[in-house]
Amino acid sequence: MESSTNTDLDELDPSSTLLDLTSYQLHDLDSVDLPPNLTELDLTANRLSTLDPRISQLSHLKKLSLRQNLITDSAVYPLSSWNALSSLEEIVLRDNQLKNIPDVTIFNKLLLFDVSFNEITSLHGLSRVSNTLNELYVSKNEITKIEEIDHFHQLHILELGSNKLRVMENLQNLVNLQELWLGRNRIKIINLCGLKCIKKISLQSNRLTSMIGFEGCVALEELYLSHNGITKMEGLSSLVNLRVLDVSSNKLTSVDDILNLTQLEDLWLNDNQIESLEGFAEAVAGSREKLTTIYLENNPCAKSPNYTVILREIFPNIEQIDSDVFS
């Protein structure tokens, strides 16, 4: 196995500005040449527990990925003083053994920062991250509070799914936020802090009982609310740009407040308590022509003898009903 890896390393192109060492299972980089002109270094899925000091001299580097290694807080510490790398635009430390947000203060052009799938308990340290940031990923950690994000005026994507958050807060300054991912937390109440430009929101697998709170998000295109305790569809009529609505696995008994959603293409209503298709055509009249996918399985109404026939009559351009795909 070792000889195979060495052979692969020998075949790497020394003139390339991208060095991709994904899945080489390297414990160190002793057997690897690091050309000084590198702009991208991908070390995903290795066994690295330290950072090779030669990386500190790669002054042209724009993207550094250490995803899926054995990097600890002490192992990543040297990065904070590697001034030659100050022009880095992407740092990926996903799936390691970090317990804190690393100090990346020197990277004043940072666009993407990913520390998902670690053991981080607090967002302390984010206040030192450059305000140039476009994408921030801190999913699958132990975060309990949204904080130190006020300065991220350029942020487009915020991913905080699979944490221990109970409250949506401190989002008001993220005026350019396009995507907000908060699935698998403990959130009970929707609070977007006045933001109106968001296009995608996920609050799947939380503790919501109401949909109230999205009314001002008129740019919203995709809304994911599955696996909550929502009992009524409401607060949706102003979301005229919505293309995807997922309210599956809730406690809905009827379909309401989507008459105005003329752009709706995907509607996920499966695993609820919708008794009948009576009045359904009127409820979805606005999206009759546009809708191509609907899920209604595991509702009482899905047991109706003409269930599929009725839905195909309502939606002339339907392409999929539950798992059935039509040509």
TrEMBL record:
Task: List, alphabetically, the PANTHER family matched.
Answer: NISCHARIN RELATED (PTHR15454), PROTEIN PHOSPHATASE 1 REGULATORY SUBUNIT 7-RELATED (PTHR15454:SF56)
Question: Which InterPro entries does the UniProt record give?
Answer: Leu-rich_rpt (IPR001611), Leu-rich_rpt_4 (IPR025875), Leu-rich_rpt_typical-subtyp (IPR003591), LRR_dom_sf (IPR032675)
Presence of the UniProt keyword Repressor in the record = no
Q: Which gene encodes it?
A: LOC101507201
Q: Where are the transmembrane segments?
A: none
According to the lineage, what is the superkingdom? Eukaryota
SMART domains listed in its UniProt record: LRR_BAC (SM00364), LRR_SD22 (SM00365), LRR_TYP (SM00369)
* GO cellular component: a single term: cytoplasm
Q: What is this protein called?
A: Protein phosphatase 1 regulatory inhibitor subunit PPP1R7 homolog
Query: What keywords tag this UniProt record?
Result: Leucine-rich repeat, Repeat
Q: Which Pfam families match?
A: LRR_4, LRR_8
